[in-house]
Amino acid sequence: MMNMLSYAKTWLTLGVVVVTTGLASAQYCTPVYTTGTADGDYINGVTVGAIANTGSGAAITGVGYSDYTALSSDLTVGSTYTMTLDNNPSWSQTYTAWIDYDQDEVFETTEVLGGVGLSAGASGTVTFTVPVGTPGGSTRMRVRCIYPSGLAIPQDPCLSATYGEAEDYTINIVGGAANDVGVIDITNPISAVDLGFENVTITIRNYGSEPASGFNVYFQVDGGLVTGATYGGTIDAYSTASYTFGDTWDFTADGCYDITAWTDYELDEIADNDDYTETVCNLGPITGTGAWYIYSNSTGGEPWFTTTNSTAMTTVFGAEGTGWNRAFFETLDPLSIFNSDNCFVFIDGSDAQANELETFLTANMSTIENWVSSGGKLLLNSAPNEGDGMSFGFGGTTLTYSYYTSNATAVDALHPIFNGPFTPAGTDYTGTSFGHAIVSGVDLSNVMVDLFNPSAVVLAEKTWGDGRVMFGGMTTNNFHSPLTNAANLRANIIAYMSCMEFVICLPPGGLYADGITTDDAVLHWDVVDGALNYNVILQNTATGLLKKKVFATNMAVIENKLSPLTNYAFRVKTGCGVDPDIVSMASEWYYFTTLGREGVNEAAVSLYPNPNNGTFTINVAGYEGNSFNLNVVSATGQIVYTKTVDVTGANYAEQIALDNIPAGMYQVNLSNAQYQINYAIVVTK
């Protein structure tokens, strides 16, 4: 048997585009209303089975969509039900109701329960029977009204409208077949470049109300040899399981393959859902370097009505028309963009273009995924001001809206996007808001997160076949601060995802100092691949005086240049080109203190570790019997810690714990009637 739902998939081959069909799951659409319930056009009651949501009015004024999936009812296969619909008291409406019987997250015309036109304040009914053969388990029911009454029935469950409301509920299908299993997905292989001898992995669903075991599973490719096996486990009622066949299949020849998998269960009561067909292609590689920027033409401008995205494209690729091109969701030919001539595509569906993006992705996800598998680089971003989020595809990646990130930070400061080729970029940003949505999924590498909630991911990336995709919920960079850094960051993201070669300098790590005397020190850092030189910045932390010098190796010898008992800090930038402006971001500061002069009774004070997490040791040598007032002062001049230190020995040490203070630089001051000593510390969290 073939699947109940088919849709066009486009597969990229060696210079050839082949259109085939196959089944794919979706995410429930959310119908959009431009006015919604704001003028009183709403569903005032839905009653069916155990659901009695009467007198509900508009859940959220003006939105037009209400999620009542917390309300549920059992419906029995083969039984007939009457749904009562109560209309609002102000306006006439046309009603339609659906149940997603096959649980594929799409409301199809075969799943329409019925409809009715209702005048203001009126009630009406829809009578329906749950079809025999409906799989058991939980699914969704939708009721939708659109102004006015008298419209054609059924309406569309997803398309936008001006006035009205849609409400979703949960339905539990019971009393169906006791024994019913079928294949619902083929998860391996997936379309990719250079497929070989591959294992075939399928997903099996037990639609029945009884556990299923002892059945056979099969697959064949292009209608050829049948490969079979016995499923060795047990699948609980209404549950799924994965199965991988032990025998591989030869997919080495370029082109597309139709894989069909099915179950054979002696007790099976429903044959229509036993099989599943998937088309998998051995793809040709990306050979061109074309770059595209895609968004919606529905609003008359780029997302957020700002040109910062196109400015970033020009920064990276040069002039539009020669270095890059733009296209619109509504008018582009997908095959003219997602092909072997183009290597980078930036898709942004932010602000009032999110629903248009969701429609575009739903129609073209297979084409896009296969293009990335061939080696394409995709930047997929949406910071919505509409809708309820969407599927970003690529193995279950989801954009969740709304979540507003005001403070975004890098997960790894050494990631290339924070280090060039356009600098300064930096790792920390504020904005109102930096992001309107967050992303989640399987096998994502998080790149930027909410500073105060690291589980909220505003930018992530994933390898997919021979290509890579970055997923974002970011607003345009004109909303981000610092502005210069933000513009560079957006250009760096595009450069990182492009197929162009850029020089990106990374700052060195592993900083430390040794050979410290009263006026000498040797500074060290790790070697950076590709470095031509290193720019060292040395600072006297008390005076703020900076000295800069370029060194050819990863070591700087400082002789007769320092002052005794003085706190210093140094950091390093990597030089990556003959152009002196091609340098990395600066490394973190490293702090050290020089020694006191021999034979001179100076307050030999050391603080360690430095930097620290707020807890450090202060060591005072040479002032036995002295008493000091110790104050720790923030960069704004606020005293955050104070105590009296009585030096009771020739080499006195005491641990200081600064609890609940923010990260930053602080001055530690030791003073009495004769001495005033200041040292800097850095607190990290």
What attributes does this structure have?
685 residues; mainly beta; Immunoglobulin-like; Rossmann fold; 5 domains; ten-stranded mixed β-sheet; six-stranded mixed β-sheet; disordered N terminus
Short summary:
With 685 residues, the protein is mainly beta. 7% of the residues lie in helices and 46% in strands.
Describe this structure in words.
With 685 residues, the protein is mainly beta. The protein folds into 5 domains: 33-174, Immunoglobulin-like; 178-283, Immunoglobulin-like (Sandwich); 290-497, 3-Layer(aba) Sandwich (Rossmann fold); 512-593, Immunoglobulins (Immunoglobulin-like, Sandwich), CATH 2.60.40; 604-683, Sandwich (Immunoglobulin-like), CATH 2.60.40.3080. The protein contains 4 helices and 49 strands. Helix 1 crosses helix 4. The chain is elongated, with a radius of gyration of 33 Å. It starts with 6 loop residues before the first strand and ends with a strand.
